[in-house]
Amino acid sequence: NDALRIRNLNKTYEGGFQALKGIDLTVQSGDFFALLGPNGAGKSTTLGIVCSLVNKTGGTVEVFGHSIDTDLARAKMNLGVVPQEMNFNQFEKVFDILVTQAGYYGIPTKKAAESAERYLRQLGLWDKRNSPARMLSGGMKRRLMIARALVHEPRLLILDEPTAGVDIELRRSMWTFLEEMNRRGTTIILTTHYLEEAEALCRHIAIIDEGRIVKNTSKRDLLRQL
Ligand code: ADP
Ligand code: ADP
Q1: pTM of the entire structure?
Q2: Cα(111)–Cα(114) distance, integer angstroms
Q3: Under a CB-based contact definition with an 8 Å cutoff, are residues 219 and 226 in contact?
Q4: SS3 state of residue 168
Q5: What is each CA distance from 187 to 89, 110, 124, 206, in whole angstroms?
Q6: Cα→Cα distances 45→49, 91, 208, Å
């Protein structure tokens, strides 16, 4: 049972720049997976295609067996995404942001409210539930992005550079939270350009460079080779 199957993924941006040159990637259910690579390697493009924010030029993507081409609604039900940019409505209240998001997935209001409360408590945002998002600190906004991605209880959580620009204290608490989510069964994929982050958290690491997967291995084997 694979959480994510990517086959021969290609992306050429308008203007002709070839960002992805045939990416193949399989992430098993339950894994904690890092997609590592330098800036400009194609990490965000790959994740953008998986969550259908970016159109692909060629190839296939399946989330728990659901193709994003033919079965997008079910693929999305299984997928939570934490993008790099904060893209919530700054004037909406924290609690409402989560309930609104759950509504996109057709989750009934009562269940949505329960799920919102659970993740706001777990991420230390419950006291802020009635604040508009713009009143939160940067670190709180990061955590709100994670809570929003989880409110429909996806089986696969994807985070794009989750701790870029985050102070060490928040980074540690985010790591602990993600490890606990993974222990309880959520498959996690994150992109990072910090080897230490991949090393601290992940069981499998793929390295992407110039639009190609140049290595795909268990963490243990990778560290042995360095
Ligand atoms: P990473 O996330 O690994 O830093 P990206 O996937 O963001 O890399 O970018 C891969 C390459 O594609 C980079 O060279 C980047 O400049 C280019 N790129 C990204 N978005 C666009 C776009 N909208 N139009 C043209 N080129 C883009
Ligand atoms: P779209 O308008 O592309 O259909 P949705 O209605 O699915 O997007 O989602 C609306 C909001 O949820 C947007 O803020 C978007 O960034 C975010 N979003 C889109 N897809 C996902 C996803 N798979 N998981 C989490 N959030 C998503």
Answers
A1: 0.88
A2: 5
A3: no
A4: helix
A5: 28, 26, 22, 15
A6: 6, 29, 11
Q: Is the shortest distance between the CB of 149 and ligand 2 below 6 Å? A: yes
Q: What is the tens place of the pLDDT at every residue in 106-162?
A: 999 999 999 999 999 999 999 999 999 999 999 999 999 999 999 999 999 999 999
Would the CB of 145 count as within 6 Å of ligand 2? no
Q: Residue 194: what pLDDT?
A: 84
Judge contact between 20 and 13, C-beta under 8 A: no
Task: Check the CA dihedral 207-209-211-215 and report its sign.
Answer: negative
Nearest to 158 by CA among 5, 59, 48, 19: 48
- pLDDT, tens digit, for every residue of 182-205? 999 999 999 988 888 899 999 999
Phi-psi region of 56 (alpha: psi -120 to 50; beta: other; left: phi over 0): beta
79 lines ligand 2 (CB under 6 A): yes
ipTM of the complex: 0.70
